[in-house]
Amino acid sequence: MKNLTTYDFTAILTLLPTERGGRKRPAYDSYRPSFSFSSRNHFSGEISFPEDELVEPGSTAMASVKLLPSRYIRQNLKSGDSFTILEGNQLVGTGVIQEILKEIKGSPKLPV
Asked: Which long-range contacts (CB under 8 A, 24 or more apart) does 51-54 make?
């Protein structure tokens, strides 16, 4: 069975303006879009904005990102790697990793 990998990192995010296909409403803490790292795969995660209560479409902000465990996420993400932010298949923003806070690799826990 393939190992699961999860990441926690800080990033600079830019949400696309509404007129360029971005969100119509601001993103708040605990925003849960999908992420793509130069692949066709989308990964689930959660964004928090430690310096802002909300981030308007067309704005840039510092954020904390927690990716949910996945078997297929690219190994060894690092500072400077870019990614896209998606809602379904719609591109709503972009980001650049600033610092990896936690990388966890391990076998999935099976119920006993």
From this structure: 53/28, 53/29, 54/26, 54/27, 54/28, 54/29
